[in-house]
Amino acid sequence: MAAAPARLVVLVSGAGTNLQALLDACADPAYGATVVAVGADRDGIEGLARAERLGIPTFVHRVKDFASREDWDAALTDSVASYEPDLVVLAGFMKLVGASYLPVLGRRTINTHPALSPAFPGMHGPREALEYGVKITGCTLFVVDDGVDTGAIVAQTAVPVEDDDTVETLHERIKVAERAMLVDTVGRMAREGWTVDGRRVRLGG
Ligand code: GRF
Asked: Which ranges carry the Formyl transferase N-terminal domain (predicted)?
């Protein structure tokens, strides 16, 4: 009997094109994963609409609706954990998870960043790569920890910077690579498992 598909919870804050790439991949049973819920830190975003159109459960926790950031983090942890995910994917989720979340779900949570870590962490990876003048940048998939884009690296893809790039054209080129990296790597994690030894992540048994 085939193994049950891995349960994915995906967290988003915006357009959700990375989420859509995962949803498309999950339509094939051979992919080995299924999106069981999509969460967000804000309402009215296309990322949530993509899930709603497929009848996938969604939840929203806005920081401003909680007395403290810690309370928000605890509510997020409870909601994500309630779906019993094998893997949580932060796909353009623009918040750092915190002290409630990390001990419960941190080892099962990956995030995608539009730069080649450890270069250009934070919210402006494509802009900072362009301003620095690097000729190669890219995207990084990592296991979340308590830093900003500092976690153990699961996968990276290099992307060239073109002479006439703007922040927008560069970020769009990175996002094409990011979606392919995410789909390929999440599928392998779902089907083959993964181990983390210090900073070194290995896919497969
Ligand atoms: C991605 O480049 C992600 O790495 C960054 O924001 C973008 C999200 O894109 N943090 P989308 O919402 O998946 O289209």
From this structure: 7-185
Give residue 16 CA to ligand 1 midpoint distance, Å: 7
- Take residue 144 and report the two structure tokens written for it: 């979340």
> Alpha helix (H) ranges present in 43-165?
46-53, 69-82, 101-105, 125-132
pTM of the predicted protein model: 0.97
Q: Where are the alpha helices (DSSP H) in the chain?
A: 17-26, 46-53, 69-82, 101-105, 125-132, 167-192
User: Known binder of ligand: residue 112?
Assistant: no
Tell me if 112 CB under 6 Å of ligand 1. Answer: yes
Which residue type, as a one-letter code, is found at position 96?
L
Best CA proximity match to 97, nearest among 168, 34, 151, 157: 151
Pick the atom of ligand 1 nearest to 18's CA.
13
Question: 179: Cβ below 6 Å to ligand 1?
Answer: no
| Architecture, CATH, for domain 6-203 | 3-Layer(aba) Sandwich (3.40)
For the segment 79-113, what is each residue's pLDDT rounded down to a tens digit?
999 999 999 999 999 999 999 999 999 999 999 99
- Is 111 annotated as ligand-binding? yes
Q: Which of 42, 98, 44 is nearest to 72 (CA)?
A: 98
Q: Is the peptide bond before 160 cis (omega within 30 degrees of 0)?
A: no
